[in-house]
Structures are given as structure tokens and as C-alpha cells.
């Protein structure tokens, strides 16, 4: 279920930096959650400067703004892990975009397994099937 979504202003990143940010975030997400890479998703939405405000003022042409990210995890992941994700996404974004980490904001969204779907089935159903398959394999 690992999905991370970055919101950037139109002047904040080149195409190469966007690719680097998504690849970095995907690798770190998989590592921290111990999740297979094929489950990881990442995306960037680029907003025009007049569509973003910082400190109560819309961004002017050429201003880079302040990145924001949202990362989703299934409910039950511990605080230390969620904090590590927030820190690594913040520090990686700062390094890749060449900005100060103090302007970056983000959040971790916990999603109930019953409210997340994979190929049309809830994560709760898939978890149950995986547990049953492991139990059957160990009994044979």
C-alpha cells in the first residue's frame, strides 16, 4: 500500500529532480516498510505558482514555494516507523531540490485495511488469504 504524493510549485524542480525524488522516495519507502517494490507508488503534482500560497501570499513568478508530501500506510504501523518516513522524505526532498528542510511539510495518513483496495479487494481480505495460505503451507 505504500503511496507517497508530493506537491511542488512549478518552479521548484526540474524533470530530473522529480525523477530522482520519486525514485529515492520509492526505494526508501520499500526499505523502511520492508515492502516489495512492486507495491510502492509515488507521484508528484505540480501546481502553478498562483495556485499555491506560502505565509499567506500566493507565490510570485520564479518563487519555489514549499513542498508538501502525503504518505499512506496501513493502520497499525508504529510511531517510530512513521516518524522515520517523515524524516527521510523531508531530508531527501531538501537534498534533491536543494532547499532547506525547514520549509517542507508533510504527513503520514493511516488507512484501515478495510478501506484500502488492491486489485479490487480490500487489504483486509488479502491479508486474511495470505495468512491462510501460509498456515496451509506449514501444515503440508
TrEMBL record:
Entry superkingdom: Bacteria
UniProt xrefs under Gene3D superfamilies: Macrophage Migration Inhibitory Factor
Protein name per UniProt: 4-oxalocrotonate tautomerase
Amino acid at each position: 500500500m505504500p503511496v507517497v504524493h508530493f506537491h511542488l510549485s512549478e518552479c521548484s524542480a526540474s524533470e530530473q529532480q522529480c525523477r530522482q525524488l520519486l525514485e529515492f522516495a520509492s526505494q526508501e519507502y520499500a526499505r523502511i516498510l520492508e515492502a516489495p517494490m512492486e507495491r510502492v507508488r509515488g507521484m508528484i503534482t505540480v501546481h502553478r505558482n498562483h495556485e499555491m500560497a506560502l505565509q499567506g501570499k500566493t507565490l510570485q513568478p520564479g518563487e519555489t514555494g514549499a513542498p508538501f508530501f502525503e504518505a499512506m500506510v496501513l493502520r497499525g504501523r508504529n510511531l517510530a516507523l512513521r516518524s522515520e518516513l517523515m524524516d527521510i522524505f523531508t531530508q531527501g526532498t531538501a537534498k534533491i531540490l536543494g532547499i532547506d528542510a525547514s520549509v517542507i511539510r508533510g504527513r503520514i495518513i493511516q488507512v484501515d485495511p478495510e478501506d484500502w483496495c488492491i486489485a479490487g479487494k480490500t487489504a483486509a481480505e488479502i491479508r486474511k488469504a495470505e495468512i491462510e495460505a501460509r498456515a496451509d503451507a506449514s501444515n503440508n
